Amino acid sequence: MDAKNIVQIPEDLTLIEVDSPSSLTLKNTGEAETYILKCTDDASLNLSIEKNANVSIIEISDAKTPSYNIKVEQNAHLRIIRIDATDKKTDTAVHQLKDSSFVYSLISLGGSQENDFNIHSDEVATDTKLFGFSLTKKDVTVKNTVRMYHNAEHCTSYQAFKYVADDDSHAIFDGKIIVQPHAQKIEAYQKNNNILLSSTAQIESDPQLEIYADDVRCSHGTTIGQIDENALFYMQSRGISYATARGMLIRSFAEEPLDVISEEWLKEGLENAISSLLKI
Fold first, then answer.
1. Count of structural domains, the chain
2. 11-20, 109-118, 126-135, 173-182: the lowest-pLDDT one
């Protein structure tokens, strides 16, 4: 499965293609703008979101080693949805300035992947939300490493990564929230929830807190389990097939990362792809 085959992209959206080291500034147009991003294997993108801009980027590409350096200017708002379905190794660095917001949702539906995220809340009153959903099968390995740096006060961050591991696959979450001594009044939360669909699948989870300030609210946690057999039995007793009930429970489990997606054409394509992978 290739990422570009998962969805049918509307023709009226602006396409950004990156095939070499590039710099790009997306300006404030006074309206919310949505772009499609496609990168090739050698892509390296320096991206700046101009002050007060409101931008959504949907990345659908099969680049193997792209890197991103992103700056979200004062009171700018950036939302990125990334769809992956092939082998990939990525590096993403983000710097947020005063009153900016950054929302990122990574949907991984195939291929071995290693993704490194370094998010820097550099000025006051930033808001950061990071989501991930991975459905791993066969012998693939997916690893997401997140470092959330709170470098300024009165900021918030939230992370929710969810893995569903089947067959002989391996899913890894390595996350850390770092709060600097001067970064008071921080609210930062991190969670990693996991479902094992086979006895030979593996999950590794290591959420961490590194806090040097004393006036903060921070938490982290992880869960690893299996499909709720009682819920499956109840749904089957109501005439729902095993495969459909199983798929419905997994879809419910993936709610947070998918709910970031407001585009119906994209959500429909992902729903169909997930159903296909689950053989519903």
1. 1
2. 11-20
- The HSE-up count of residue 39 (CA atoms within 13 Å, CB side) is 24
Position 260 in a domain: no
pLDDT for 71-108, tens place per residue? 999 999 999 999 999 899 999 999 999 999 999 999 99
User: How far, rounded to the nearest angstrom, does the alpha carbon of residue 214 sit from its chain's CA centroid?
Assistant: 29
Query: What is the rounded CA–CA span in Å between residue 182 and residue 161?
Result: 28
Q: Which helix (H) or strand (E) holds 267?
A: helix 264-277
Write out the residue range of the structural domain in which residue 38 sits.
3-227
Q: How far is CA 26 from CA 47, 145, 217, in A?
A: 8, 27, 34
* Alpha-helix runs per DSSP H in 162-253: 229-237, 242-253
Residue 247 counted as domain residue: no
Answer yes or no: is 126 within a domain: yes
Q: Cα angle vertex 9, ends 5, 13, to 5°?
A: 150
Query: How far, CA to CA in Å, does 84 sit from each of 22, 113, 199?
Result: 21, 9, 25
For residue 92, CA distances in Å to 34, 106, 144, 220, 245 come to: 20, 12, 11, 22, 36
In a domain, residue 216? The reply is: yes
Cα dihedral sign, 188-67-103-70: positive
